[in-house]
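Hi support team,

I'm opening this ticket because the web form for multi-chain structure prediction keeps timing out on my end. I have pasted the exact lines I submitted so you can reproduce it. The total is 977 residues across three entries, so I didn't expect it to be a heavy job. Is there a limit I'm missing, or should I split the entries? Thanks in advance, R.K.
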Amino acid sequence: MKSNLTRNQDALAGLLFIGLGAIGFAIALGYKFGTSIEMGPGYFPRILSLILIGFGIVTFVRGVRSGTEIDGVWAWLPLALLTLSIVLFGFLIERLGLVPALVALFFIAAYAGHEFRAREVVVLTAVMSLFAAVVFVWGLKLPYSLFAWNF
Amino acid sequence: MEILDHFALGFGVALSLQNLAYCFLGVLLGTLIGVLPGVGPLVTISMLLPVTFGLPPVSAVIMLSGIYYGAQYGGSTTAILVNLPGETSSAVTCLDGYQMARQGRAGAALAIAAISSFVAGCIGTLLIVALGVPLASWALRFGAEDYFALMVLGLVAASVLTHGDMVKALAMVVLGLLVGLVGTDVNSGVERFTFGLPDLADGIGFTVLAVGIFAISEIVLNLEQKETREVFTKNIGGLMPSWADLKTAFLPTLRGTFVGAFFGILPGTGPSISSFSSYMLEKKFARDPSRFGKGAIEGVAAPEAANNAAAQTAFIPMLTLGIPGTATMALILGALVMNGVQPGPSVMSRNPELFWGVVASMLIGNAMLVALNLPLVGLWVRLLSIPYRWLFPAIAMFCALGNYSLNNSAIDVYLCAALGVLGYVLAKLKCPPAPLVLGYVLGPMMEENIRRALLLSEGDLSIFVRSPISLTFLTISAALLISMVLPAIRRGKARVDREEAGAV
Amino acid sequence: MRIVYKVLAGLALSALASGAQAQNYPDKAIRMIVPFPPGGGTDVVARVIAQKLGEATGWTIVADNKPGSGGSVGLSLAGKAPADGYTIVLAQNANLVINPILGKANYDPIKDFAPIGLTASAPQVLVVAKDSPLKTVEDLLAAAKAKGGKMTFASPGVGTSSHLAGELLQQLASVKFRHVPYKGASQALPDLMGGRVDIYISSVPSVMTQVKEGALRPIALFATKRDADLPDVPTFDEAGIKNSDAVTWWGLAAPAGTPAAIVARLNTELNRVLKQPDTQGKLRAAGAEALGGTAEEFGALIKSDVPKWTQVIKTADVKVAD
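Hello R.K., no limit was hit. The queue was backed up. Here is the completed structure from your submission:
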């Protein structure tokens, strides 16, 4: 049980904290540290990064000792699809306009679910696109094109 | 009774057909945009500002204020229903409100949010009237060292946000503090952790972080199970809170109101600090703190009361000193000035019709909001019976579109998606998200103020104990720390003793 | 209707992807980039101009807020936009001129933009709390010298126009302040009123309320002439500190390479709108004074501002990156 690090909840959390702390510290090396009385822009980031690394080490060690595993499975595929759908929305709204961006978002996001029924997704996309157009563009007067071609 | 005459004057103004209509329009719009994540009162008020030029000043301010405090009502709706904070101040409402919804108590949660908001809104309005001027001059005494000490108290209290692993919670606070530092450093102007992107120079937006960490990761967690499982229980309890619920929520609502009123008066602290603080206070006061985070009704009532009270009392420094605490207040201040009204300590005597008219309209507006929101509860709850496979892409749409609308910038959308990934990973590793968000809120203010305090005192550290306000906060923090550490040490010792005994 | 229009506009846009004709300009909506969030001073100026230009010409002008990094984000987008006259930007000296000098922007104020016309300006003012002993410029300078560099000077942020106005004053008057930067006015004003900082420099509109109420006392303006709202307040120039004007100005600009005929057309319409009393009144209410003039005059202002502020920033050693 202790050997399986890839499922060890706290060991992974510890590694994540250590990693983020290390990145933070490395970047903050580029900012002036100053002194405790005259703190530079690098003072807080570096101290905080070190504290984060410290907490990370403690969490890691406790994880290795207890061997508590994560609950359930990692939902990598839904995570990737959902993230992709949102990123693609951001990419498309400025280039093709709101409606194509929403079509992409709904089709990809819906695919992340357990069952994908194409007809339902078409209806859902149509209804929600209309809703978004009415509320955001017509109602709130946000300056978005419904369709565009900017490449 | 002079005050009765004033109120008579105020209600005379506010109850005119025209002003009632503008008040209703304002609170209706406020509720609507409060429900939509991203789109907030700031955008809406600035869009409507040109329209108000044609109106009498009183009507203009009545409507714009209605949008502002109305948004605080609507903000809790999506937080409770789908873990999507609609306004910055309602991130805390996610913690227990969403859990209540999953237990079939969405109706009770929504209703208690509206009721506690109403109570807090009314008390906050009365505070403006009764103590506006003295409170405002009291707020002027808060210097950088006092703000710093207040933030320290907030961080120490953050430990009560945890259930379970204290070390991981503290790590999350520190991570939040680091995330809060992204952007331009106030004291030196240096851009930190921006990776050269000018879009990050103003930091990571609260909505971007909260939506990513709460809403997106929650969707993925729900999609994890292979079998089709409904996220929300089918047996939805009563739409309205029970008598027992109301009794439980009564004192938390009052305490939340006063916590919120306190932070509302301090310029620059923002509504999210007030809701966090009241939540932590309730957990500290609770007989059984373990209920928090699992659908405790106090965890909805107190922060919702706090953010509404803060929204009302934020008018105090704006009206009596002309100091806008938030960007939205700056906008309302601008509207007043453009309409020829000069805020200041004498605003009550110089523009009595405006001042008392707006105050009376706030009481009317809060009543309208509760009348508007309680019947909506049934409608909102019915949304939860929509199959999740339709609901979650729609939530994703609100996340994406809401974040895009913040700055009309795709970078915010990408960032939110990335934070969603981080949020999911952290959730799987049982790292609590609330301490991270609190660290993010407190971090920049803490750093900014300690450095400013030392700059102004020329490096003299004794400034933190010489200021009575700062000394008070630091003493409470120390007492709180000791009260937490001592039992932990005792427990730890007891455990060691037990283990030793077991080993024998 | 709007949706249908948008669809048609989208189709038209794809058909005419490039190369608009100056003679039938404009045949679609013009996007005016506003490099600040809704609600700020720049946003108000932009919306007044967009609305008035639209009313006067019948064109559709869409104000598009692209905030971030003190305006650098919006300016950068505008500089890179197609130079077809359908993207214009309401620039401010702080973002067009000063941000590139500070290294906070990746555009060149002269090479990347075609100036259209100066639009409005607002002076900066130095204020003190009502119970401060300082009353005149002489008081201020004498006190600053007596305090030997310990007089505290609050500004709304590092590298803002107000901060640089303070640096300019220190250089011209040979005094030294201790700079205390804030994030806008919300915490700076309480510190000034509470006596924790000595002086504050800010644009006039953001302290007007307190000045009128008597909580703050204006000492002098960083301007070439007195302000209509503060007729009793002298300029630093009058007090003997020459070349001390540090106004905030706003001007319309287009990406470099925008056809000269389109720039000229926009300049004509802008000047016409700026002469309307209603436009002037609305700008006045926001604390700004309507200006105007030719595109060349605006270009010359930018060209003279660049060396001026480069010098101030270099002498004061203002750095936002290290």
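A quick check on our side: The CA atoms of residues 9 and 70 of chain A lie 5 Å apart. Let us know if the file doesn't open in your viewer.
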